[in-house]
Amino acid sequence: MRSALLGLCLLPVLAQAQVFKCVGNDGTTSYSAVPCPASEGQSTRIIEPAPPSGVAPPPLSLPRIETQGAAEQPQRRDEERADEPPARGSRVTVIQDSASQSRDARVSEMRERAEREKRESYDRDYDRKRMQQMEQQIRQLQEQNKTNPR
């Protein structure tokens, strides 16, 4: 009986999860259950307090369903929702990304640089192969001159 009670007391501890917010060197944000690698930029542990036990969540008020005036129903629902306070824990706040323009510029610059390096790499490989072919032709001509002197 005591072990069951102890086990029940430890259940809320198991329900808590650690969430880490990782901001990479390139400005990208990701969330994970494990800490970010040191080379990946900044890591922040997000701690959300657990709701107090024994307190019931506030009841959600549901809109009334009316059978008459169905055309006016969506407008009434919108008005009812505007009057109600937002439910606890169900809000999402969208924050505008202030660095999106500079990040977009960096991304396009990085893409251009990668394309340029790729093109230069292809050009170097082509030049190297062309030089090898020319050297091979020169060797063949030298061997022909040794075997067939003029």
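Above is the first protein from milestone M3; the second protein from the same milestone is given next.
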Amino acid sequence: MGVPATEPALPSVLIVEDDKFLREILVYELRKRGYGAGSAESGEAALEELRRTPHDAVLLDVKLPGIGGVETLRRIRAQGGAPEVVLMTAFATLDSAIEATRHGAAGYLKKPIDYAELERLLRSAHEKRQTARRAAALGHYIERNSLFPDFVGDSRAIADLVAMVRKVGPSDCTVLVEGETGTGKELVARNIHKGSRRAALPFVSINCASLPEGLLESELFGHEKGAFTGATQAKPGLLEVADGGTLFLDEIGEMGGALQAKLLRVLENGEVRHVGGNTSRRVDVRVVAATHRDMAREVSEGRFREDLY
């Protein structure tokens, strides 16, 4: 499902202590117990280390030179994905413990360190961090699959595709989806529509390769009665049917030059004229197009308009 099921058994701990001797003892004791351990001698050094290297937990002395332990705690907790922090001091009081908790400390230790209590606090902090990670991953999974249920899988490619759809959906820009036949280009188009302000309005699709040029023109732009043989009544085009919503033009690379020019005028001025008609109609339609062709090559070889691409 994409939600992490396992984590390393023991967390990596950053020890922040200005007393070099105590700092080295703490590193030694934690490593002996199987923890990863790094160290910093000040709050400033700790913040820099956390920017460089992720740690699961921080063991932080309250009395530090420079910005001090509580301020260091506050700055650590302000960072995204911040590690859990356990404070330690030689002068534990109820007020200082309350202050530490208020700023988000996972626990409070009095020196000299009781290593059994330290391990208990570190395990508790690590479990809390694991739970938060799993909850975030599950929330992301549920949100993604409720918004984009058509996209199945947890690969990087699917994640990138969902991110792209999420980004372009709310905009009103014209979109071209390129890909091999059968790769789900219409699904992408439908999900772009679902993520837009037009979601409650029509999504209309047509395959430009499925009709001869003349019929495709009539389908897209509509026609007046008597415009051609068999036109026994006026008919709106799909650009009108999709008014307010989205028109999906599959295989737009198969569209001829004359139709490309007419489509460009619609995109530029928002007006449609029926085949055989002499008046224009205003339309508000977003176009999402798709093709299996290399459109950059089609443009360079003169088969597709550069200003439409």
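Note on the second protein: The chain has two domains: 12-143, 149-300.
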